[in-house]
Specification:
Strand 2 and strand 3 form a beta hairpin. The chain is built from five helices and four strands. It is elongated and about 55 Å long. By secondary structure, the chain is an alpha+beta fold. Helix 2 crosses helix 3. Strands 2-3-1-4 form a four-stranded antiparallel sheet. The longest helix has 13 residues.
């Protein structure tokens, strides 16, 4: 069960994952060893899924973001999601309700690269009937943070 201290620790780590353990301990009013034990428990329970660095895609020539709705031609295309996940520039593959089977998020250099990927990589995947692409003009918010308000699942 996650308590209020765990929620405080998770909030701090979501804000700055590289914060020293001693600073987390100071902020929650606990000994560093107790905080470390709680963090390890949260990791072992799968509540903390990992830590990653967020890179600025523009510094790597990936200025264009796009969302691609992928309509599939079969009810249960085994391997389609895995094949879509292997496409160049794909950051997310989400199965969605409705006429489209999947929603992809891609980061690429430009519209030329996006067109090439759609023609040469996505269109050739078994089960892909058609795609609809939305090119991002501006991003006002992008986060991987999870709201810690509300009920906590007891799945763990």
């Amino acid at each position: 069960m996650i308590d209020d201290i765990d929620l405080q620790i998770l909030e701090i780590l979501q804000e700055k994952a590289r914060i020293p353990n001693a600073e987390v301990a100071r902020q929650v009013g606990m000994a560093p060893s107790a905080v470390l034990e709680r963090i390890r428990k949260l990791e072992s329970q799968g509540i903390i899924a990992g830590y990653e660095v967020r890179l600025n895609p523009e510094h790597f020539g990936q200025k264009l973001a796009a969302f691609v709705l992928v309509e599939i031609s079969c009810g249960d295309c085994r391997g389609t999601a895995e094949a879509l996940a292997a496409v160049s520039g794909v950051q997310e593959v989400n199965q969605v309700a409705g006429n489209d089977g999947y929603l992809l998020k891609l980061r690429v250099a430009d519209t030329e690269a996006l067109g090439r990927i759609l023609r040469e990589e996505v269109a050739i995947i078994d089960g892909v009937a058609r795609t609809r692409t939305l090119i991002v003009l501006a991003t006002f918010k992008e986060t991987r943070r999870v709201s810690l308000e509300g009920p906590v699942s007891e799945v763990f």
